[in-house]
Amino acid sequence: MFGYVMPRMEDLTQEERERYHAAYCGVCRALGERFGQRCRVALTYDMTFLALLLGSLYEPEERQGSKRCAPHPVRPHAYLGSECVDYAADMTVALVYHKCLDDWRDDRSGWARTYAFLLEKAYREVGARHPKACAAIEEGLADIGRLEETAAAAVSSGNTTAAPPPDAAANRFGALLGEVFAWRDDFWAAGLRSLGAKLGKLVYVMDAALDREDDRASGSYNPLVALDAQPQDVREDLELLAADAAAAFEKLPLERDVRVLRSVLYAGVWQKYYAKEAKEAKKAKKAGQPGQAKEPTHVQEEHQEAYRG
């Protein structure tokens, strides 16, 4: 469920793009400095959003610089560092470590097992620094696994009344991400937890929407396949979830990097979904079937307002 929480770069000015890349490089640099170079492979766009979000809210002192690195040895790259960037690096390790364990359990992926082993020492360090967040990740993913397993068994047996509610796993992933977003137990924790919960639920359902046909073909459990949800209904549900996440975001008193962050929530989270929808529409057109791809209503109606001025 990685790779959704990123900005739509064409929305941003050159200065904003450079700022985002500096934060991305900062998280990468923090991974290398805190855990060793091989941990840089764990880098994701998603936690760059968290670094900028927390930095905008708490406004910590920032370290800025420009250096060459192993991934980019030819020319120096700007980077920024702060307590928030360091926390985002820690949460990157925690989430990727458990994703690798999950991939190993589900698919017997040798690569995932190997990389989880390589991350184990780093994860123990993160767990010592952030026991509450790591416990929330461990417990949350275990609960999601049980929910999905119970639901799959109920669907397979035809006893759908025994299945948990179809949004139970999405809600649980939202609760997990809410705890990750709540960096400190302070005045802002409730607002950050709410945003993380709503964004997490959106990402879970978005991932299910994009995997729906593959899961249908493979027989893997997918709540949207189990519900036999129609594409238009799925799109409308996603628009509502995205609107909820945006509403939680707008309640936070953010100024620095706010346009970059809005680009993520109002447009960036839709990029994979929209790309797949456009691909399917093109395929339908070639087959002589009706098909149409357009930006979601949520983006059409709110995008200009988000970037006004």
Automatic annotation (TrEMBL):
The organism of origin for this protein: Gordonibacter pamelaeae
Compositionally biased residues, Basic and acidic residues: 295-309
Protein's UniProt name: Polyprenyl synthetase
Disordered as annotated region, ranges: 281-309
InterPro entries in the cross-refs: DUF5685
Source lineage: Bacteria, Bacillati, Actinomycetota, Coriobacteriia, Eggerthellales
Pfam families: DUF5685
Source organism, top-level taxon: Bacteria
